[in-house]
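Expect sequence, tokenised fold; for instance:
***
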Amino acid sequence: MKINKIINLVNTISKLRSKDGCPWDNELDLKSLSKLTLEECYELLDSIESGDPTKIVDELSDLLTHILFYASIGESNKIFDIEDVIENANKKLISRHPHVFDKENFGTLESSEDVKKNWDLLKNKDQKKSFLDNFNFLGPSSILATRIIKKLLGKNIKIDEEGSNYKDINIFKLYFYLLQNDGDPEFKLREEILRIKENIKIEEKKSGKNFENFQKNKIIKILFES
């Protein structure tokens, strides 16, 4: 990889955000740029779905540009710069892959599933998160639901599939039905997720225990019956 190409891009962004640069680029802040970044993420997903390498490169370049713009904004406000971002990324990758970078003390992990479980353990340890912190996400409800459900599956919380016909559910048809009856799937799902969050808070307060320490049948009840 030619480092000078990255340096050229950094210099281009610095020029755009200089006093004699672009007024619009200079007005960008972290919040206003974040809305555009979300659109770029979806455009990247769309390009990957297309399988067109040219489109993928184009969208990846947009996303890289956004990252460097964030770093430039951070540097202008003296809160962080691109070196902080790169250093943090490198530290995180090394600390969460002890089976690669610290085999002598940690040992090895044999499967990708073992790696994923260990990654989640290390991530939770780093962030010292409670289960409720998983609900603090402003993105699409489907992504929020996926994050929460993956956490639950990681704790071996699963729906009893016996007698279930979930495989026959037509998701598009369900969306169609909700919209046809003046229900927005995005907001319906978010409402349900927020209901679960409130139920967890109530039950934690009543029992004096954290959600993670509840019995499986109690967790299932909170999720689907309350």
DSSP finds twelve helices and no strands in the chain. The mean pLDDT is 86. The longest helix spans residues 53-76.
